[in-house]
Every structure is written in C-alpha cells, then in structure tokens.
C-alpha cells in the first residue's frame, strides 16, 4: 500500500501546560486529563480556584481571538458556550485556557438527546459571528483533517468516493452560506448535560464558522449512526431532507464522508473505514 498521511498527534497536555505557564505566568495547576476527545485536553485550575480546560488551539492567535469574540457574542445571546480566558502563543502551538462549564458528557445517546441538540442548534440562528465561512474541502485537503491523499492512496473504494466528492465540489452550491453560528463538530461528545439530561454546555469550539447552522445536524446524524447502532433514524433522515435542499444536503454529506473516512484511515482500523464507507454510500 502507498504510504498514507500520518495521524494527528495526541496532545502532550503537561508539556503545553508548562509552556503556557512559562509564557504567561498564569500559574495554572494540572487537575487531570480529559478522558474524551480524539486529540486531548486537560482540566486545570487557576490560582484563584476557578476551574478551566486547557487545549491546543487550531489556527493562529488572531483566528483564536476571533473565536473568543464569537463565543462572547453567543454567550450574550444566552448560549451555553465557554469563555476563552487565556490565549498563549507558545511557538509551535497556541494554548487555550477556557471556562469549564457545568455538567458532564451524556452517559447515554438516545432520541431525547438528539432532539435536544437539534433544538439547541436552532438557537445558533442569526448569531453571525465575525469568523470565516468554513470550507468544505471537497477540492483540496483541509488543515490536518479532510485529507484527500488518504482516500486516494487507500483502495479502490475510497478512490471512488473521492471521485464523487470532487464532483460535488465542482457543482453548485460550492460552499456554505448563511449568517448563523456553526459548530463544525456538533456531536454528543461535545455537549454537557445535568442530572436531568438538560444541555448545560457546548464545548470544543476549535471548529467554528459563520454559515448554516443545519450543517451541524449532518454532523450529528453521522455521530448518531455510531451512538445508536441499529436504531431507526428515519425520522432524522426525513428532518434533514426537510430543512436542507437536496444539493445542500449532498454538499454537507460529501464533507462528512470525506472527514470520517480520512480520519478512520489515519487513526482507526480497516473495519472502521469499511463501516464509514458503507454508511456514506449511497448518498442521500
């Protein structure tokens, strides 16, 4: 097999914490490693006792400042999103210390949770943050994800999928439009809930954009395929067809197919690659 692109490295949270403290004098204390997530994060505590979460930001310091401003605007609208408390450029990365929101990751994924997340996404309407419209990366590789090279080099099935992705990328619409707040990785692992199952937080805003909030529903549908194996999700598919025009749904579906298959090729098993290929094709 032709050599594949490398996986995204796991975050060395201790190293990042030390670099942030040296750079800023923040005095953050390591509390523990966050268990969820593909790349990694750490729970930290400020000298005044506030709890926070430390992550490695995606993009440069200016991009992350725009993210912080967008989240501030969302909080002003009553959305349960974290405050970015500190941004620290430490040379090879930007450390992001953000508010630790109340609640915990949901222990169970079910229709009730999915419907609550769908309702939450509607609250993103018209927030229009000062951040770029995200690319779907259908004609060129993304920055560390949505890599075309993975699909091109893996096997005939992935090359066929990549050919279809290119066709969608050359068609109209060519990208996302709208003035909503967009969470680019909207799945149950990125929400927090209280003991009653009410959503108390939406986290992991490294993927943020301005555009169409309904994109998050396609991300959520892909996640539901894993979180609810064998469940009847025809209602969710019908919802997507109701809120999205066919060509827009195809655009978003192509992006998610590219994202999931590429990530599985580089980070998971051959069985995972087959799993996502079987789900992503046929295309809705």
**Series of secondary-structure elements, N-terminal to C-terminal:** HEEEHEEHHHEEEEHHHH
> How would the global form be characterised?
globular
What is the typical, i.e. mean, pLDDT? 93
Beta-strand content: 5-15%
Radius of gyration: 19 Å
Tell me the span between the first and last alpha carbons: 31 Å
For the record, the CATH class of the largest domain is Alpha Beta
What's the tally of helices?
9
Pfam families: APH
Domain Aminoglycoside phosphotransferase: 43-221
Protein name: Aminoglycoside phosphotransferase domain-containing protein
Organism: Kribbella karoonensis
Structure commentary:
InterPro entries: AGP_Transferase (IPR051678), Aminoglycoside_PTrfase (IPR002575), Kinase-like_dom_sf (IPR011009). It holds the Pfam family APH. Residues 43-221 form the Aminoglycoside phosphotransferase domain. The protein has nine helices and nine strands. The chain has 284 residues and is of the alpha+beta class. It has two domains: 13-99, 2-Layer Sandwich (Phosphorylase Kinase, domain 1), CATH 3.30.200; 111-280, Aminoglycoside phosphotransferase (APH), C-terminal lobe (Aminoglycoside 3'-phosphotransferase, Chain: A, domain 2, Alpha-Beta Complex).
């Amino acid at each position: 097999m032709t050599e594949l692109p490398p996986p995204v490295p796991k975050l060395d949270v201790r190293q990042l914490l030390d670099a942030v403290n040296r750079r800023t004098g923040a005095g953050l204390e390591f509390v523990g490693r966050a268990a969820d997530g593909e790349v990694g994060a750490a729970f930290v505590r400020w000298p005044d006792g506030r709890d926070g979460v430390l992550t490695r930001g995606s993009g440069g310091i200016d991009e992350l400042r725009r993210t912080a401003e967008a989240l501030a605007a969302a909080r002003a609208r009553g959305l349960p999103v974290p405050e970015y408390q500190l941004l620290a450029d430490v040379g090879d990365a930007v450390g992001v210390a953000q508010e630790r929101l109340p609640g915990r990751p949901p222990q169970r994924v079910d229709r009730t949770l999915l419907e609550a997340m769908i309702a939450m996404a509607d609250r993103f309407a018209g927030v229009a943050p000062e951040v770029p419209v995200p690319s779907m990366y259908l004609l060129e590789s993304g920055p560390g994800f949505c890599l075309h090279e993975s699909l091109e080099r893996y096997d005939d099935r992935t090359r066929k999928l990549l050919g279809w992705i290119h066709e969608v990328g050359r068609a109209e619409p060519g990208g996302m439009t709208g003035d909503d707040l967009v969470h680019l990785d909207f799945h149950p692992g990125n929400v927090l809930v209280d003991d009653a199952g009410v959503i108390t937080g939406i986290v992991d805003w490294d993927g943020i954009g301005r555009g169409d909030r309904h994109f998050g529903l396609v991300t959520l549908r892909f996640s539901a395929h894993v979180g609810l194996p064998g469940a009847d999700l025809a209602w969710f598919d019908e919802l997507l067809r109701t809120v999205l025009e066919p060509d827009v749904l195809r655009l978003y579906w192509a992006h998610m197919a590219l994202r999931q298959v590429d990530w599985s090729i580089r980070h998971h098993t051959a069985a995972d690659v087959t799993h996502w290929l079987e789900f992503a094709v046929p295309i809705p």
